[in-house]
Design goal:
Strand order of the largest sheet: 17-16-15-18-19-21-20
CATH topology of the largest domain: Rossmann fold
Shape: globular
Strand content: 25-35%
Oligomer: single chain
Radius of gyration: 24 Å
Number of domains: 3
Number of helices: 10
Helix content: 10-25%
CATH class of the largest domain: Alpha Beta
Number of strands: 21
Structural class: alpha/beta
Length: 444
């Protein structure tokens, strides 16, 4: 007997009037209709709106504003013409200082709800430029035959398609103002439909674009790309497979981007696809905050977990007796060692280890550390926290890009391991977006 395919119930097409109660962690307004929670794009607490449904599921629904019936005092006109279509930003309609307060409130709420921990003192937020700050990005590329043009940029909000944008005012202007020109360049290549993405890496004075190619470009293609790079002060590279296949165009020198920490006399070299912080100004302020908080001297032995290419390790080593950096990615560890040599810093050690696994038999894990710094990925650091019982650090500084996993881990440190949360706060690493960068200090 043939089965009939179940069809989803069609969405209501009549606008529904609601008052926005709060904000979700991603910046969407929260309301309720008939007991079901609705997440509504670009709606702010206290506003009365008419919205239309864009998605309905068993436990929740999603919508977008059809008519704004009242305005929140923190609402501003988004300066980017593509806001609302492009999925890169979610907060451009919120006044800049209010964005920080929203993120602070979120951090406090997550600590309380997830970690069951109250923040006794809120750190003064670290602030930097709100526009043109982004130096690392992965941009999508798509040849659209119907329009005979190549789109370069980011995906549409809540859709898999690339948004049709001509600029990005959050990206550093060396790239953000050239999206149309990049699309025209790629549109003139023989492999215009064989390029899915561009990896952007902008150093203090270098810009490297790694162009993912599914087929090798012709000599003529490479000549066009070379001319474009020279005209726009960019180094264009080709990436045939993974990040380790990035190579300069034929006949071009390899450009290694760098960023400096002028307060500490340190310069980092990095490969284009390696992780670095996207916002250099906030990164410098963040490193200074960590160093001021830890108040290091030559008697300190510091463990830097999830150390990357040594962003915190090397400046800490300028003050401490010894700093040991641990990172899961071997190429990053190799690069961290190179950066230590490049800066003449010899009181550091770097090791590769998967910190989500048992590390108790590693020689570095058998030592004592009186201070620990950690900056994990969005997944947090819950697995490695239980080793803190052995290390017994006096101070822990935790930098996080995900307040919910930071809150969870704060709960482990305070409620299970007996540490005291001293203070926490946010850092404006990602203005105009819902991403929250935060920092917390724990003492024994």
């Amino acid at each position: 007997m043939a089965r009939t395919r179940s069809r989803r119930k069609p969405l209501p097409d009549t606008p529904v009037k609601v008052t926005i109660e709060s904000l979700a962690h991603d910046g969407r307004g929260v309301a309720h209709v008939d007991g079901k929670v609705i997440f509504i794009d670009e709606a702010l607490p206290g506003e009365e709106v008419e919205f239309i449904y864009t998605e309905s599921r068993k436990d929740y629904a999603e919508g977008k504003v059809a008519t704004l019936l009242s305005h929140s005092p923190i609402r501003v006109d988004a300066p980017c013409a593509h806001f609302g279509v492009c999925g890169g930003c979610s907060f451009q309609h919120v006044e800049s200082s209010a964005q920080i307060h929203i993120k602070e409130d979120l951090l406090v709420e997550q600590f309380k709800r997830i970690g069951k921990v109250e923040i006794p003192e809120i750190w003064e937020p670290l602030k930097g430029p709100h526009w043109g700050y982004r130096r690392k990005a992965r941009m999508g590329v798509k040849y659209v035959a119907k329009k005979d043009r190549v789109l370069v940029g980011f995906r549409e909000r809540r859709h898999p398609y690339l948004a049709e944008i001509d600029s990005c005012i959050v990206m550093h202007p060396i790239v953000g103002t050239q999206l149309l020109a990049l699309g025209e360049l790629i549109g003139g290549l023989t492999i215009r439909d064989k390029i899915p993405q561009i990896e952007v890496a902008i150093g203090d004075s270098q810009c490297v674009l790694s162009i993912r190619v599914l087929e090798p470009p012709t000599a003529e293609d490479q000549a066009r790309m070379r001319a474009f790079g020279h005209e726009h002060n960019m180094s264009l590279c080709l990436q045939s497979k993974g990040p380790d296949t990035i190579v300069p165009l034929a006949g071009e020198p390899e450009i290694i981007p760098t960023y400096a920490l002028p307060d500490h006399g340190i310069e980092f070299k990095f490969r284009p696809a390696m992780f670095t912080q996207v916002n250099y100004e906030i990164n410098r302020l963040m490193i200074n905050r960590v160093l001021e908080t830890l108040a290091l001297n030559e008697n300190d032995t510091v463990l830097d977990l999830f150390c990357g290419l040594g962003n915190f390790t090397l400046p800490m080593a300028k003050k401490a007796g010894l700093v040991v950096g641990i990172e899961g990615d071997q190429p990053l560890v190799n690069h961290a060692k190179e950066n230590a040599r490049h800066n003449g810093i010899d009181n550091v050690e770097f090791y590769a280890a998967d910190l989500s696994k048992d590390i108790s038999d590693q020689p570095w894990a058998m030592r004592k550390y009186n201070k620990i710094m950690l900056d994990p990925s969005r997944a947090g650091a819950s697995e490695v926290l239980h080793h803190f019982k052995k290390w017994q650090p006096e101070q822990i500084v935790y930098v996080s890009c995900n307040p919910s996993t930071l809150a969870r881990d704060a709960g482990i440190l305070v409620n299970e391991l007996g540490y005291k949360l001293v203070k926490a706060g946010v850092m404006d690493m990602f203005p105009q977006t819902g991403h929250v960068e935060s920092i917390a200090l724990f003492t024994r």
